[in-house]
Amino acid sequence: MYLTRLLALCILASTLAALPTPSPPTNKTECDEAVNEENKALQAEQQAQGLATVAAAVANQAAVTAAQQAARVDRDRATAFAAIANEVCSAEFRKERARKA
Length: 101
Prior knowledge:
89% helix, signal, 101 residues, mainly alpha
């Protein structure tokens, strides 16, 4: 999760560094446009943060799901081994009982 956010920040920083530096506004229209652009940039940043959060959550859920599946496989193997061991022990017990009889 940390690496995903770090990667997103690096991409954002490199994108911002590549953008040309705007000249300062000289009249009200340019000031309004600058404020609008800043608001758009803020919205884009918030969306990017939201997407990064969703991506991290999806990656985390995928890791949880994979761990659960691995645990199920281990449990299934243990159950199968126990069933086989039970059959072998039962067969041995029956043989032993038959020998004693």
